[in-house]
Design goal:
The protein is an alpha+beta fold. Helix content is 32%, strand content 24%. The strands form 10 sheets. Strands 15, 18, 23, 24, 25, 28 and 29 form a 7-stranded antiparallel beta sheet that branches. The termini are far apart. 39% of the residues are buried. Residues 621-682 have low confidence and may be disordered.
């Protein structure tokens, strides 16, 4: 007689078996609990490690005649299996090799010599199927971290003694410099001011930062720093509101009244801005740069070049500053135009990217209107130019649809576009006529994000002011007469504007010719290139009195470093909160936190190791004359007493691939990299 069996045998994995006594027919598969770990490491192997190589390379020597470029990489097969590593007390690792290209230029003849070679970088620990690493025969695990998500965060706190509200905000990257703004109402004589802090250093006035990134002037010869007539004409030519009541008669400081008009026209007539400018003793752009340098490096002698390099390194260098995709997404969401518009009344008509009226003035913005605007504002309407510094502008590129006729006006082409018989060159500032021609031939164009040009019609009254301040606060990117480029003897008066390249300013004689033509009532338009921000006027009351100016980020910007546009939008959000526009963030909410998985953690350590290696590579020089290959140069250390001259030592801790024996020799000749490898394993 057969025995009754009230269970069934189920296999779990390759070896384990389990008795299942359940009577319910349906069952769910056990999820892979280490999938997060394994998928994250797979991402690092496929994409993450390549991102680090492309960030660090190419490495160039100080002379600029030798460049080491990264081409590709590959992982070999681990020498031992997982079980063998446990038995031998070894590391479960695979050899990592990179294909490098060496480009050497002879400074005397101009001859370019190029070599390719596979370079052995070391044994890289690999993850097992169970999400662990085998280090010296023992299993080790890298634990994911819950960290504060990169982005912009705003808070309102009440002061204990006075009971007044203080407004604080911080812009946090995943890697790089923290930027904070905070109000201070303790100086009763001035009223509430806005301070700033970079990397938790000593607080300084917030206007110093904006003077350093473009909203200031350097005093020129025979210039009157107290005259405000020309700046008023310039601001009116830009279509901005001028608050002349902010002018202080008999003010002894140069440029103070000019800055009062400038800042209130761009940001809005806030008392906090006026108080901060009144407390700010910095007059010129150069003084502002030096002040920031002294704040960050108080033990060094400040210089203008050093200050510019410091600003680039702190904020605009992608190697040192990284928001990551998550940070850029949260920043775009928080500092966008639509985030602050909900719950307010529109103080002006809102236009779509095609130039159509979406909502009229006086419309109350609810969630329904906000959702419509969230899509339409991505098309680039209501974008204007703010002052900027050309040396700090390192824009990314984005695609824009040619049907967005309003959003494309003033954008700058990032590559050449062939349109029938006509070629639109890279760096061309797009006019309305250009967009009509492009829309007939192409569907999308690639433009620079974070930059836009403001068209200003020159007249007899404003021509001198626009040309004077136009190239000091902005860059004149194009001059058109009757919708055609202005030329002189067949050449463009203003060359195409290309970021990260030197540009030539208009000479005094060229400016005089343009002013004379403006006095002759010729239709001349100057296109002023600046930082692209999206602006609109809203109000908290139905009669739209006391309009509030919202300054938001460029909607097409996806760059993973902070931009000048982000700084303007970040500061404007802080000011808008004083008018009750904007929302406070709860940092303890899980929506404002993220998980850093194993792939990202290893990527950060790998980046640190390559960055250190880059410095070593630049500092070491050998003489490659007479060598048969660059491989021989790689494996030799320079002699200290030989006085070798100006050739880059390719990889100071790396040897060339070959057999297993050559890999072993490379490991012995690379003490620096092996030390870094031990740190990474640990």
């Amino acid at each position: 007689m057969e025995k009754m069996q009230n269970y069934r045998i189920e296999k779990l994995g390759k070896k384990a078996e389990r008795r299942n006594y359940s009577k319910v027919s349906g069952n769910l598969d056990l999820p892979d609990l280490v999938e997060v770990q394994t998928q994250s490491f797979e991402w690092f192997i496929r994409e993450g490690i390549r991102e680090v190589f492309e960030d660090i390379y190419p490495i160039q020597n100080y002379g600029g005649n030798i460049r080491l470029k990264f081409v590709d990489y590959e992982f070999g097969t681990p020498k031992y299996t997982v079980n063998e590593c446990k038995y031998r007390e070894a590391n479960f690792a695979a050899p990592l090799k990179a294909k490098m290209e060496l480009e050497m230029v002879d400074n005397t003849t101009g001859e370019v010599l190029t070599k390719w070679e596979d370079v052995f970088l070391g044994e890289f620990p690999m993850m097992t199927e169970t999400g662990t690493f085998i280090i010296n025969g023992a299993e080790r695990v890298i634990v994911s971290q819950i960290v504060r998500s990169p982005g912009a965060y705003f808070d309102i706190a009440s002061e204990d003694k006075t009971g007044k509200d203080s407004y604080n905000c911080e812009l946090i990257p995943s890697r790089g410099t923290w930027l904070e703004f905070m109000t201070d109402g303790k100086k009763a004589a001035l009223g509430r001011i806005v301070n700033m802090s970079v990397d938790r250093k000593r607080k300084i006035l917030s206007t110093i930062l904006f003077k350093a990134i473009g909203m200031s002037l350097n005093l020129e010869k025979s210039e009157d720093g107290f005259d405000t007539a020309e700046i008023r004409r310039f601001l009116k030519a830009l279509g901005l509101e001028v608050f002349e009541e902010n002018i202080v008669e008999g003010e002894p400081r140069e440029f103070l009244n000019l800055y009062m008009l400038l800042y209130t026209s761009f940001f809005g007539n806030y008392e906090e801005i006026r108080n901060t400018l009144a407390a700010d003793k910095i007059k010129t752009s150069n003084e502002a740069l030096l002040a920031i340098y002294e704040n960050q490096r108080s033990d060094e002698v400040p210089t203008i070049d050093g200050s510019i390099n410091l600003m680039n390194a702190k904020f605009f260098d992608h190697r040192r500053y990284d928001l990551t995709k998550a940070g850029r997404y949260k920043l775009n969401k928080k500092l966008s135009l639509t985030d602050r518009m909900e719950g307010t009344y529109l103080a002006e008509d809102v236009l779509s990217g095609e130039g159509k009226v979406l909502f009229e003035k006086g419309t109350f913005v609810t969630k329904k209107e906000r959702n419509v605007l969230r899509v339409e504002m991505l098309k680039g309407s209501h974008v204007i130019a703010f002052p900027f510094v050309h040396e700090f502008s390192h824009p990314d590129t984005s695609m824009m649809d040619t049907s967005w006729s309003l959003g494309l006006i003033g954008r700058i082409l990032a590559n050449d576009v062939e349109c029938g018989d006509r070629l639109f060159e890279k760096g061309t500032v797009l006019t309305e006529k250009d967009i009509e021609a492009l829309a007939k031939e192409v569907k999308e164009v690639r433009v620079y994000s974070g930059l836009v040009a403001k068209p200003v019609a020159l007249t007899a009254e404003n021509a001198s002011a626009v040309l004077n301040y136009g190239h000091r606060f902005f860059v004149i990117g194009r001059l058109t007469a009757n919708n055609e480029d202005m030329t002189n003897n067949g050449e463009l008066v203003v060359d195409r504007y290309i970021p990260d390249e030197d540009y030539s300013k208009l000479s005094a004689s060229e400016q005089q010719v343009i002013i004379e033509r403006a006095h002759q009532n010729q239709a001349i338009t100057a296109w002023l290139v600046g930082a692209a921000v999206q602006t609109i006027q809203v109000s908290t009351s139905a009669d739209c009195s006391n309009p509030i100016k919202i300054v938001a980020i460029d909607p097409i910007n996806q760059k993973k470093t902070i931009t000048i546009s982000d700084m303007y939008a970040f500061y404007s959000y802080e000011l808008n909160m004083m008018d009750g526009v904007g929302s406070v963030d709860d940092i303890d909410m899980l929506g404002n936190r993220r998980i850093r998985t194993v792939g990202e953690l290893i990527q950060n350590q790998f980046r640190i190791g390559l960055s250190r290696m880059e410095r070593v590579v630049k500092e070491r020089n050998v003489d490659c004359r007479g060598r048969r290959s660059d491989a021989e140069a790689v494996n030799e250390y320079p002699s200290a007493d030989r006085g070798d001259q100006g050739v880059l030592l390719l990889l100071a801790a790396v040897a060339v691939h070959g057999s297993a024996e050559s890999a072993g020799r490379a490991d012995q000749q690379a003490p620096y990299f092996r030390a870094g490898s031990r740190r990474l394993n640990a």
